[in-house]
Amino acid sequence: MAYNIRCYDTDERKYRLVCGTNTTMSQPRRIIDFHVHIFPEKIAAKAVAATGGYYGITMDHNGTIPDLLASGARINCSRYLVHSTATRPDQVVSVNDFICHAAAEHPEFIPFGTLHPKMENLEAEVDRIIANGVYGVKMHPDFQDFKVDDEDVLYMYAALAGRLPVLLHMGDINTDKTTPERLYNVINRFPNLTVIGAHFSGYSVWDRAENVLKGTGIYVDTSSSLPFLTPERATELVHAFGADHCLFGTDYPMWDHEEELARFMALALTEPERELILHENAERLLNL
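Predicted structure:
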C-alpha cells in the first residue's frame, strides 16, 4: 500500500465527544501520553523548528513544559512520558539531568533518559539514570546517526536488556537506519530486551512494520501515525500488534492533544481496547 503523507480530518461530532462534552461518561478518561518531547526553554524554539523542518511538518506546539501541560490539560491527560534525544555523545548527561530535574518538579512526568552509542561509560550512565528514577531510554537512530542493528551498537541493548525498556523511533521511507527488518534483528538477538517501536514501529512504512514485526511481542505507540492513516488502517494495525501492546502517544510538540485524541477515538475499537491503549498498558509495562 502506498501512503500519501497527509492528515486526515476527524468528524467534528466525535471531536466534541472525546474532548470534554460526552455526557455519557461519569468522569474524564484516564489518559497517559506515552510519547512527549520536552526541551529547555532557551533551546525549545530552535529544536522544534529543526524537527519540523526535517519532516516538512508545521509543529503544533513549542516544546516547553508549560505549553505541554496546557495542551494535555485540555484532554485531562494525567501522566506524560517525557524524553529528549542526545544527538551527540557529549549531550547525554546534560539531557538526562534535564529530564530527571523536570520529573522531580512535575510528578505527572514519567522520565525516559537517552543514550548515545558513541558515548564513553555507557554502562555507568545506565546505572546512574536508574538510580535517578528513570523508567526507560528513548533513542532516535536517524538523528543520532546509527543503524538500529549495527554491530557496534549492540552493546547498548545488552546494557539495557532486563533493566530498562527502550523506545525507538522507527521507520522512515527516506533512510534505512530504522527499518522494521533491522529492528527484527535486534529483537531476535536480545529476547530479554523490552522494545517499544514508536509510530506503530514504522513511520511511513507501516505495511512493512506490520509484515515484519507482527507476532514478535513488540510494543508500539500511536504517535505520528494517526494523522497519516485512515481510521480503518490504524485500527487494523492496532489489532495486528495487539491492543494489549499498543500505547497512546501524541509526539508533542508535533501534534495537538485534542486532535490526537479525537483521531484515536475515531478508531473502531471496543471500550476495553481503548482503556488498554490510553493508560492500562502503560501502567502495566512500567509498573506505575
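Summary: The longest strand covers residues 31-37.
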